[in-house]
Structure prediction request, 89 residues.
Amino acid sequence: MKTAILLINSAGNGTGAASIAQNDNSTSTTTYQDFTAQTFTCCVNANDTGYLTPTDGCPVAFVIDDAKTEVRLLDSSENRAELLTCKKQ
Prediction:
């Protein structure tokens, strides 16, 4: 099982910074990676969809819910689909 915590701070101008910590129990040993800093660019369309692109990774599609309280991310890197729900803090 893989889990992660992602903290995103958007600058409001199409750029931002994030920190991510990950834990992977899918092999015989547990691998924990402490928080590491990431930067990204993003594009938000008028219909509240868009892409978040880390400087060292693949674009991640997202949609903002109607109440503007959740962002749903769809990561399809490495031919695996992951759906994440992020809550506004």
Summary: The mean pLDDT is 80. The first strand starts at residue 2 and ends at 10.
